[in-house]
Hints:
This protein is an alpha/beta fold. It has helices at residues 23-28, 69-75, 110-123, 143-149, 168-178, 190-200, 250-273, and strands spanning 3-12, 15-21, 34-38, 46-49, 52-54, 59-65, 82-83, 85-90, 101-107, 127-134, 152-157, 164-165, 183-187, 207-210, 226-229, 232-235, 242-244.
Amino acid sequence: MSYKVFGVQKLATDITRMVVHAPEVARHARAGQFLVIMSDEKAERIPLTIVGSDFSSGAVTVIFQEIGSSTRRLGMKEAGASLFAVLGPLGRPTDARKIGTVVCVAGGVGLAEILPVMRVFKGAGNRVIGLLGCRTKDLLILEEEIRQACEEVRVATNDGSLGTRGLVTSLLEEFLKEEACGLVYAVGPVPMMRAVCEVTRPLKIRTTVSLNPVMVDATGMCGVCRCRVAGKTVFGCVDGPEFDGHQVDFDELSQRLSFFRKEEELSAKALERTP
């Protein structure tokens, strides 16, 4: 089956939105789930959160950061091109129920991943607060869509070019001093999610994190995406991607991600030396 690319848009430096024709994925996709894309027959399998889906057209939307050779190859695809494979929807969908106030914290490209979560919590009748963090204002994506999904949005940038200068966790600390909430949902870099959990832990606020460990087959067979949650081994692809943040072993997760990054760097250097 051929998966046609309907459209490609650069949202910011190295951040790309792609709309792909994948009707079976669009038919069943729910917030919080992801898919796996192979741009061509020899490409790596890339897990990407499903940002949006349209059943009538069979289109699914993903947003990704071009940080390695595989994502850069994917980003080179143009409208009208075809992808070799699209597998999904994968993972467990977001458990969105009426809670009251839900604070959604996102950093970096996690802004794309949290948008469908915001929408589904709002659809369940919750008051959704968006706390967004990025290095600089030029990397803030989907601001208009996020504001439509939230009652209130606050922004923090590392350089102070937009909103509050500093980390997004400072926005969370500030908000929690002002009012209570029923759930904090966080997605983004591991250090950010870990810091969010350390803010909410002493306050005993339920906190959900969406993990993105290294994946290969994304169906629970290879075990590469294993994590420790509540002292047990779980698989990010089939048991997640959402987990209780207060029970995630962030030390192990960080170590595994660091190991695979080093392996990827060595492989890339080896390819550069290949004549």
